[in-house]
UniProtKB/TrEMBL annotation:
Residues 149-378 form the Sigma-54 factor interaction domain. Keywords: ATP-binding, Nucleotide-binding, Transcription, Transcription regulation. GO terms for biological process: regulation of DNA-templated transcription. Gene3D superfamilies: 1.10.8.60, Homeodomain-like, P-loop containing nucleotide triphosphate hydrolases, PAS domain. This is PAS domain S-box-containing protein. Residues 20-63 form the PAS domain. InterPro entries: AAA+_ATPase, AAA_lid_NorR, Homeodomain-like_sf, HTH_Fis, P-loop_NTPase, PAS, PAS-like_dom_sf, PAS_fold. The keyword Transcription regulation applies. One of its GO terms (molecular function) is sequence-specific DNA binding. The lineage of its organism: Bacteria, Pseudomonadati, Pseudomonadota, Gammaproteobacteria, Methylococcales.
């Protein structure tokens, strides 16, 4: 299917292919973009590639790709020519200064009119750096990265595995989770893992529009259907044909539209507003909600038959407050992305700041954590993230949130006074029955600090 307007060629000629590629590369948020010719020589080297790998464009251009893309486990161009594409394959690349960085590599082979290999465009997505031993949340092998979703949490890993499995089918999926847990990101991951990945992924928030506008946006309308309908409008169902349609906050869908959605799901046909001929489509539905559709159905606000049709496969994304081991991981992930932009580089996190971040309840979940990092880069200075770089509520929480376990266990100002550091760690673990988080609270330190000291002392 042609995805370009006839006006595209004149447009690209007017704005320039070089400018278009450079602009697209800038939108990839820290990913290194490069292009090579048929001989494997570098034709394009993005600014992010300069920052990520340490080679200036002047050093990279014209060089063989393996000279500046020094992968530890990359296959030669023959594999790319044979397969045609690489998708988020993990590898490590050596930087100009001799260090290495873990990346996910994607590439597309390009062929000329005669079918000969003409070169390739590639992207290196930097993997989030693992927190050092001071964070103490497990080994690198425990981290899972999946289409931008990063986790160590077993419940989150289970959700990602369900997404992988169900992506091989066309079953409808309902993603449940609080605001900010990454529901749309999970839906996009499902689409990218499915056979529909080359087709459109479209999304709509069902709570954002009035019922009349929502119906028109979903199903389209014909000219003259209502005042202001001066031409036919293809709705999301039509535009997402053979692709995926993501219905966010589906619990807010008005009752009068639920019957129409049910018919579209069951019959794969629908009537645009004002039309008299049905339209047939092949669309996979992925829905999301922060509410229980069962409870909404019991209350009469959601059709039970539609609920069962949407939640053929339910996926639950846990809130960040239950994924404490992911907080340092996600924090480093977002910091690394900002570091690549070059405005400020944060190389370390002060213990007081980490403790405040670990103790926070995160009502806005991952989206809030991302905003906190953006705030820190905007207001802070220097290469260390301190408590003063965090929004005001973190300072208030740090002053108020004295762990209840620490208050109730010991009236002494210092637990284990008279013991050396290793002795205090052992005593705290014995006192709490081996519960690391409680032991850390008892000693008045973050879990991250406790892990670091425990490793240092060999406890």
């Amino acid at each position: 299917m042609n995805t370009f307007s006839p006006a595209f060629k004149p447009w690209i000629a007017a704005v320039g292919a070089e400018h278009s590629l450079a602009s697209l590369a800038e939108l990839l948020d820290g990913a290194a973009v490069y292009a090579i010719d048929a001989q494997g020589r570098v034709l394009y080297w993005s600014q992010a590639a300069e920052r990520l790998l340490g080679f200036a464009a002047a050093e990279a251009l014209g060089q063989l790709a393996e000279t500046v893309l020094r992968c530890q486990s990359c296959d030669g161009p023959g594999v790319l020519i044979e397969r045609g594409r690489l998708d988020h394959e993990p590898t490590s690349v050596r930087k100009a200064d001799g260090g290495s960085i873990r990346v996910r590599r994607s590439a597309r082979a390009l062929f000329d009119a005669q079918g000969g290999f003409a070169g390739a465009i590639g992207v290196l997505w930097p993997e989030p750096e693992e927190p050092d031993d001071g964070e103490g949340f497990g080994g690198r092998e425990a981290v899972e990265t999946f289409h931008g979703l990063v986790t160590r949490d077993p419940a989150m890993k289970q959700a990602l595995q369900i997404i992988r499995n169900v992506a091989e089918t066309d079953a409808s999926v309902l993603i449940r989770g609080e605001s900010g847990t990454g529901k749309e990101l999970a839906a996009r991951a499902l689409h990218e893992e499915s056979r529909r990945r080359g087709r459109p992924f479209l999304a709509i928030n069902c709570a954002a529009l009035s019922p009349a506008l929502l119906e028109s946006e979903l199903f389209g309308h014909v000219r003259g259907a209502f005042t202001g309908a001066v031409k036919d409008h293809a709705g999301l169902f039509k535009r997402a044909d053979r692709g995926t349609l993501f219905l966010d906050e589906v619990a807010e869908l008005p009752l009068e539209l639920q019957a129409k959605l049910l018919r579209a799901l069951q019959e794969k046909t629908f009537l645009p507003v004002g039309a008299d001929r049905p339209v047939t489509v092949d669309v996979r539905i992925v829905a999301a909600t922060h509410r229980s559709l069962r409870e909404e159905s019991k209350a009469g606000r959601f059709r039970e038959d539609l609920m069962y049709r949407l939640r053929v496969v339910p996926v639950f994304l846990p809130p960040l407050r239950t994924r404490r081991e992911d907080i340092p991981l996600l924090l480093r992930h977002f910091i690394d992305r900002h570091n690549l932009r070059g405005q400020r580089r944060i190389l370390s996190i002060e213990p007081e700041a980490m403790r405040a971040l670990l103790d926070y309840r995160w009502p806005g979940n991952i989206r809030e954590l991302q905003n906190v990092v953006e705030y820190a880069f905007a207001v802070g200075r220097g290469d260390s993230l301190g408590l003063g770089d965090l929004p005001p509520e973190f300072g208030e929480a740090a002053g108020e949130a004295v762990p209840s376990v620490a208050r109730s266990w010991s009236p002494r100002p210092v637990f284990g006074a008279g013991l050396d550091e290793a002795g205090r760690l052992r005593a705290a673990l014995e006192h709490t029955g081996g519960k690391i988080e409680d032991a850390a609270a008892l000693l008045g330190m973050s879990r991250a600090t406790f892990w670091r000291k425990r490793k240092k002392c060999g406890v």
